[in-house]
Amino acid sequence: MHDSAAPEPHGVGRARALAMVAILLTCGGAAAESRYEELTRVINRNTGFAHMTRGVNMYTLIALRSCVGDADIPVLTQMLSDRDHVVQLAASGVLVDMGPAGRRALTGARAGATDTGTRILLDDALRDADSPARKPLADYPLTERERKSIRGCVSKTS
Length: 158
Fold this sequence. Notes:
By secondary structure, this protein is mostly helical. Helix content is about 65%, strand content about 5%. It has one domain. It has a two-stranded antiparallel sheet with strand order 1-2. About 10% of the residues have low confidence.
């Protein structure tokens, strides 16, 4: 049994604290990676195909938007630099729909973007975010059958 009044040997408390930080960082990173994968699966399950080309459509955006909240903004921001252009498009479209917090994420990503294609995509998203004609994804007209065909995710982070 450990006596809480007994002093710990030199450095043991610090070693425990560092171990806890490492565990938390690992778990947090694993959780973010898991969420990234989950959101990517949602995008892939709801991706449209036209003329043998894979692309984002309103189903993709609505499905992804239905799965995310403000706590997912860091993951969506990370998705803006994914190698898959469809993932980038979907993430940027959803960030546009997330209001000022999403716009700030797009602006920050644009400032750090080094790839020309990504910069152009982010410029387009920022123009869309500022457009007075932009309507929320939730207002997109869908039939009940179309809404039921959208395959969302297991959990939504608020």
